[in-house]
Amino acid sequence: MFTRLTGSTPRVRLAALAAGLWIIGAGSVLADATALEAALKKLGLEKAGDYYLVAGDADARTKIEEARRAYKLARVAEQKKASTASVQDYQNYLKQLNAEIAQYKNEINAVNRQINAAPRGRRGFSNSMVAEARAELTAYRNQLQFEMNQVSQTVAQLKNHPVTPQEKQRAEAEAKDMRDTFEKAVKDAREAVDATVKKYEELASNAEVKKALEQLGAGLKMKPKLGPSRGFATQVKVLEKFEHEIKSPSPVAAAKRKRAGATKSLKSAKSATSPAESEFTKP
Fold first, then answer.
1. Where are the beta strands (DSSP E) in 93-233?
2. Is residue 150 one of the residues assigned to a domain?
3. Residue 249 is inside which H or E element, if any?
4. Distance (Å, rounded) from C-alpha 229 to C-alpha 254?
5. 67 is in which domain, residue-wise?
6. Would you say residue 146 lies in a domain?
7. Beta-carbon neighbour count of residue 240 at 10 Å?
8. CA–CA distances in Å: residue 80 to residues 34, 48, 96, 101, 127
9. Could you give phi then psi for residue 122, rounded to 5 degrees?
10. Residue at 93 is within a domain
């Protein structure tokens, strides 16, 4: 490992000795980091970029995405059920679905622009944060593509099979099944989130974890952190929205009540204002 010192000048011998000591020191630091990461791994933590995450973190986010997909399918099924009421409802439903497809395409294009704008170096992405963000965007784009395909299939089915009493019955049964699937997905996601949050709370108060993270971050600009992962809180907010949605009889019914409430408020505002003063009477 060491350069031979015999026959060399004092300056060369000193440089060689310093290099040897640096190698020993670097090896010691690497060994310490490996030991610390092994200790964190025993506690159920895995390194992901500059975060240390529990296994349940990814599982909870996956389950929330499953609930999101189930919500979309339940809404489509509920709208399909509503479209069987009359010919006019059927036509309106087709227009609504085509408008949703256009929105999906716009959002997918926007996500693609974000993915392509990710800064790159000669050897790939500029850092692990960029790589992680790009992976999340790619997964989101794939999810959008899946949902758009589902809506497109619904449009194709409706065009090929005009509404009949049998179709109406099938639509009602499908709406119920999709609603049940959605509610179960939300329940499973909530259980996963609660278990993950509880685990992080326990680890946050663990002295061994605190010490290991401090030692691993010594001298580093980007300090390692205990999870949850980036985006976890945002995903939980999505879950809370779904939990609120379950309190409604159906996604479509909730939207109808919202519109009805807005209409009622508008009528109240009109009645409370004289025709001469009303903004709605101005040309």
1. 120-121, 124-125, 225-226
2. no
3. none
4. 32
5. 20-76+190-252
6. no
7. 13
8. 56, 42, 11, 15, 46
9. -65, -30
10. no
CB 200 within 8 A of CB 227: yes
Question: Phi and psi at residue 205, in whole multiples of 5°?
Answer: -95, 5
29: tokens are 């630091």
The letter for the amino acid at 130 is V
What type of residue is 48?
A: A
Q: From first to last of the 283 residues of the chain, give the pLDDT tens digit.
A: 444 444 456 565 555 544 444 444 444 444 577 888 888 888 889 888 888 999 899 999 999 999 999 998 898 888 788 777 677 777 888 888 889 899 999 999 998 998 888 776 655 555 667 777 788 888 888 888 988 898 888 888 777 766 677 878 888 899 999 999 999 999 999 999 999 999 999 999 999 999 999 998 888 888 899 989 888 988 999 999 999 988 865 544 444 444 444 444 434 434 443 333 322 223 3
Distance CA 119, CA 236 (A): 28
Q: Quick one: how far is CA 104 from the chain centroid?
A: 17
CB-CB contact of 225 with 53 (8 Å) = no
C-alpha to C-alpha distance for 225 and 219, rounded to whole angstroms: 14
Q: Is 42 within 8 Å of 212 (Cβ atoms)?
A: no
Residue 9 in domain: no
Distance of CA 14 to the CA centre of its chain: 55
* 3-state class (DSSP) for residue 96: helix
Domain count along the chain: 1
User: Does the predicted TM-score (pTM) go above 0.70?
Assistant: no
**Structure tokens of 222?**
């980007």
